Amino acid sequence: MENKNEPLSLTALIPIIRELTAKGEEFELKPHGRSMLPTIKEGRDTVLFCRAEPPYTRGDLLLFCRDDGTPVLHRLVDFTPEGKLVMRGDAQFFIETIDESQVVAAVKRYFRGKREIRTDAPSTRRRTRWLLATYPIRVRWFSLKNKVKRVFKR
User: Fold this and answer.
1) 1 domain residue, yes or no
2) Backbone angles phi, psi at 36, to 5 degrees
3) How far apart are the first and last CA of the chain?
4) How many domains does the chain have?
5) Could you list the residue range(s) of the whole structural domain that residue 21 is in?
6) Which of 87, 80, 81, 126 is nearest to 104 (CA)?
7) Does residue 2 fall inside a structural domain?
8) Three-class SS string for 27-92?
9) Omega into 38 within 30° of 0, i.e. cis?
10) CA-based nearest residue to 89, from 143, 36, 34, 33
11) Range list of H helices, 10-116
12) What is the mean pLDDT of residues 142-154?
């Protein structure tokens, strides 16, 4: 017997998100996972998905479905010469390349408690530029940090 109190998975919500955002409505969701730390934190933040409208720009937060149907919220970090979107979580060091057709929705604002954070606000755009610019340094830093941890675990 199905538990009626169990929340729907994000995969099950994708058709609803597509339908609502296509009508110009927003869809509120508390995200799960750690891939977007420190920008979005599970249990603390609430995101509002809206219609994703090209042209996209570097730094956009986009909800997309992977080829296997798994929904993911990551940041647009670049474009391929063929026009595909290069996506990466803020706390991750690998990229995914997707087609525009895989994009479900965009995040234009999110809430940290009662405080609204707009992705187009100058302070948020500065922070996004900093995250994108410091990526190579952060990769090296975390790699070094992990090597040091392994040495001292022995």
Assistant:
1) no
2) -105, 15
3) 49
4) 1
5) 10-153
6) 87
7) no
8) EEECCCCCCCCCCCCCCCEEEEEECCCCCCCCCCEEEEECCCCCEEEEEEEEECCCCCEEEECCCC
9) yes
10) 36
11) 10-22
12) 80
Name the token pair of 68.
């296997």
**Segment 44-102, tens digit of pLDDT:** 999 999 999 999 999 999 999 999 999 999 999 999 999 999 999 998 888 999 999 99
Instruction: Tell me how far CA of residue 85 lies from CA of 90, 103, 108, in angstroms.
Output: 15, 9, 18
Q: Is residue 5 part of a domain?
A: no
Q: What is the CATH number for 137?
A: 2.10.109.10
In a domain, residue 4? The reply is no
* pTM metric for this prediction: 0.86
Residue with tokens 């100058």: 122
Average pLDDT of 99-119?
97
